[in-house]
Amino acid sequence: MVSFVDEVTLHLRAGHGGDGCVSVRREKFKPLAGPDGGNGGSGGDIVLVADPQVTTLLAYHRRPHRSSQNGSPGMGDNRAGASGEVLELAVPVGTVVKDAAGAELADLEAPGMRFVVADGGQGGLGNAALASPKRKAPGFALLGTPGYEGDVVLELKTLADVALVGFPSAGKSSLIAAMSAAKPKIADYPFTTLHPNLGVVQAGEHRFTVADVPGLIEGASEGKGLGLEFLRHVERCEALLHVIDCATLEPGRDPLSDFETIRAELAAYPVPEGQTPLLERPQLVALNKIDVPEARELADFVRPEFEAMDLPVFEISTVSRTGLRELGFALGEVVDAARAAKADAPEPPRIVLRPRAVDAADFVVKVEGGSAGPVYRVIGTKPERWVAQTDFANDEAVGYLADRLARLGVEDELVRAGATPGSTVVIGAGAGVVFDWEPTLTSAAELVTAPRGTDARLDENRRATRAERRSEYHERMDAKAEARAELDREREAGIWRDDDEEER
């Protein structure tokens, strides 16, 4: 059985970035020729693409968990890791993307539109990229950052030119089947149509699409029946065609009361800001099932009432196909007029991308109270990314993180916020990474013989030449002779005497 799904929740996990590599080049006569660790590859993004060949979100309803590839780690010999492949997800044209809280992220209303819904992680730098004149041989590399993990909601709003609205069993599915090549399910019981059907109608030179919206009942705008769930498919239609059943046998129903009930539900449905309210769009009335003699008499009786409302009225029958040709041409003219008005309308305001201000803060420090004293939380893109890239098992990497945070001004801002040595500092939202802060964070550089960022193994160990050794020897002998001569002069001057001279 073919199903229709117009709202799904996707659980996304973008690829994580690969870790950088720590490596030292070794070759003949150059056992320690410098760092050559490559960078890690970036994780793959997840991209939504509006595809006109896709008409439903059923594939994502059955498989809501989607993930892209991780980046590969870097390797020695300056070999960078491979980046993860981008995962493209085809969605129907007219799909609205929202976050878990319901805020709209993107509206894929045109074929080919692309939206990066989940960013892949950034690859970490290898020690070759971290080398500098002051840090000639880094003994650490940066880790790859994790990709986006979270949920997004996909909501499909059918893109059609004309929407067929009316009570259940009014003949909407039969009408779209008679006017187009669509083959919806048709049966003689209410709510046969459980999902919108889309058909393409060709009337002379007019070509337009028609959407069959599931039956509406009183209270549909408040969630009764199936109306509220599918009324959003009417939002993007240029015109409304009221399909009214003139042969209904239900007590208390007649064409005029059905029409007023549907209009009340359309008026109560809020459309997004910037769109024309539903009742202000072009509307036509189709009095259906006039192949039944009683229905034709009723249609002739109520037709003047609709014409008095300045509404075009058509008496049709989907069984005998009476009036369908005239209805198709009328709908085509209305759609063409709406398209021409849209083409003449002023262009929507362009999206202006403004660069980040030069003096914009890279982070903020928030003071949070707690039973154990105040907690200083550092929130910012850079500090959080740097913490995620740090290997805390490597003392040199921790020292590098401390240097980066100090250069960014985190320590100065902590002092202004009132932090003292030993205060609890958290970097990132939620649990984050917790530190016992000291004004100057240090690594274990004092435990090594060489300064941090250098490697004593790479220092030159040159042997002295024979001439240099001879010169050093003569200098040493001359110093000894001069010392002996100085002692003799002091003895002759009577400053001191040998033990043998004192005995004599």
TrEMBL record:
GO biological process, one term: ribosome biogenesis
Keywords from the UniProt entry: Cytoplasm, GTP-binding, Hydrolase, Magnesium, Metal-binding, Nucleotide-binding
Annotated residues for binding of GTP: 166-173, 191-195, 212-215, 288-291, 317-319
Domain OCT: 355-439
Gene3D superfamilies reported for this sequence: GTP-binding protein OBG, C-terminal domain (3.30.300.350), GTP1/OBG domain (2.70.210.12), P-loop containing nucleotide triphosphate hydrolases (3.40.50.300)
Localization terms from the record: Cytoplasm
Cofactors, names only: Mg(2+)
One Gene Ontology cellular component annotation held by this UniProt entry: cytoplasm
Transmembrane segments: none
Record's protein name: GTPase Obg
Origin species: Agromyces archimandritae
